[in-house]
Structure formats: C-alpha cells, structure tokens
Amino acid sequence: MTGGRHDRTTFDIAVAGSAEVGEGPIWDDVTGELLWVDIPAGLIHRWRPGTTAVSTIVVGQPVGAIALRRSGGLVAAVRDGFALIDQKSGKVELRCPVEIDRVENRMNDGKCDGAGRFWAGTMALDSRPGVGSLYRLDPDLTVTTILTEVSISNGLGWAPDDRTMYFVDSPAQAIDAFDFDAERGLLSNRRRLAAIEVEAGMPDGLTVDSAGFVWVALWGGGAIRRYSPTGDLVDTVRLPATQLTSCTFGGPERRDLYVTSASRGLSAGERRRQPHAGALFRVRLDVPGHPVARFGG
Ligand code: CA
C-alpha cells in the first residue's frame, strides 16, 4: 500500500487506479466494505479494506450515486433515472425514469436520509447552468421534485439531529443549508452555510461527522475542508490529486475518511504530476462519521 504525508496530513492510497470520475463512496457497515462509482465509466466498485480485490458491477450507463437498500441490493441514480441493482447478479432495473426526455441531462450525486428516502439530483452533460433539479425517491418508489433550476446537483448530507440538510450546487461555490422536516421529507429556509472562494476549487460531494461538522471535497482544489455547523472553516486535509470528488466515513469506529478522485480532463503533464489521480484515498481522523442510512421503509 502506498502512503505518505502531504501538508501534515497522513493518508494512504486505499485503492490505486485511475478512475475517470471516482465518486459516491458509501460504507457498508454490515459487510465492512466500501462501495463507490466511476460515473462516466458506469461502474460500481466494492472493496474490503485489507484486501486488494475489487469487485465491479457494470451498469451499462453513467451512474452518479448509489445507496444500500435495507432489503439488500442497491438503489442507484443512473443517467436515465432511479434504478434498483441486484449486487449478486449485477442486474440493473431502471424503475423510475427521470428527465428521460432531456437527453442532455444525467443524474449525479445522491444520498439516503434517516427515513430511508434517496435524494439525488441532475445536471447537464455540458454543465449548462440552471437546467438540473433535485429529486426525492421514497421507499414506495414515488419520485418528488424538490428543487429546480439547479446547475450541478452535488453533495448532500444531514445533521446528526436530522433537522438540517446540506446541499451543494457546485457552480454556486457554496454549501447551502435547509431546515429539514424529517417526517415529511421536505426542505425550507434555504440559506448559505459557507461560501467557498473560486481559487480553492469547486465544492463537490460532502459528508457529515458525528459532531455535526461538514466535510466537503474540492474539485480542482486538492483538498477536503471541514466546516462547523455555523459555517466556520475549521480544518483542511490536502491530498495529492487536484480533482477530489467526494468523501465518506468508514472502517473501524467509522474514523477513516475515504476520499474519491478523478483523472478525467487532466493534461499529460498534470497526470505525470498526479500519479494518484483517480485513486481512492484514506485519511485516519479523530472524529467518527455520522452513520449513513439505507434506502427503504
Ligand atoms: Ca460530484
């Protein structure tokens, strides 16, 4: 295993490789495995720490995010909508088409709330602004539009008390917060948690720790930032790949922060300087993550 220190951060390469756009890491606390996707390649990877074998499901179209289902298997936000996936057979069943008439859009980041609803949004393939939306998929597979005029629907997460939801529309260069109605799955009172300067990179995927602080990956910034529930920047973890995409807590006591990255779009020179671009990184932290929920009632 390759490891090292980079700007005072101790990290290791959990899984080497050059994903085009590694994304959507989730920890399966039942099997002790990490799952993540490669969006444009349409792949879902699964790996157990301490081993080198990665098993892969070929989705057959871009896959933006996945979540574990309480009944087994996965729910996924694929290019064309919400799909159910059997992990054993790899069978992919598109159950709820989303924006199927808009071939220029695809689904992107997604995550489950504490009540087992899966939230995922869309974006234009050419990153045209304002044409995406955020959707909520309920356990009975009904789809509700939650937000419109989204540009690149990205990081999602909930405070440990389930009263606040965080959301990133990447080009807005900010993490937004909403009051969250956990019983009905509704949002209100949108406000800015933190603005992120353009030079620091574009906010992408996020996760929340057990103290309620938000960890956000910075695409183009080569860093993960930790923000307090009041929006103060309190920590920065730098890693040797500029295009960091998302992060989640896993491992023993859920204190390992797993970070996905991308190699897509790097020049030949950048690839030489970033031999780990596309790898899955692991950073050991003092604070554990808040458990991520599963889909289903
Ligand atoms: Ca993303």
Q: What descriptors fit this protein?
A:
single chain, 53% strand, five-stranded antiparallel beta sheet, 1 helix, four-stranded antiparallel beta sheet, binds calcium ion, mainly beta, Neuraminidase, 25 strands, 297 residues
Q: Could you explain how this protein is built, in words?
A:
The chain is an all-beta fold and 297 residues long. The chain has a single domain, classed as 6 Propeller (Neuraminidase), CATH 2.120.10. Helix content is 2%, strand content 53%. The protein is built from one helix and 25 strands. It has one helix at 268-273, and strands spanning 3-6, 9-15, 22-28, 33-38, 43-47, 54-58, 63-68, 74-78, 81-85, 92-97, 105-112, 118-124, 132-137, 143-150, 153-158, 164-169, 174-181, 186-195, 202-208, 214-219, 223-227, 233-238, 244-250, 256-261, 280-284. A five-stranded antiparallel β-sheet has the order 1-2-25-24-23, with no helix packed on it. A hairpin with a 5-residue loop joins strand 21 (223-227) and strand 22. The protein is globular. It starts with a strand and ends in a 13-residue tail after the last strand. The model has no long low-confidence stretch (mean pLDDT 95). The protein binds calcium ion (CA).
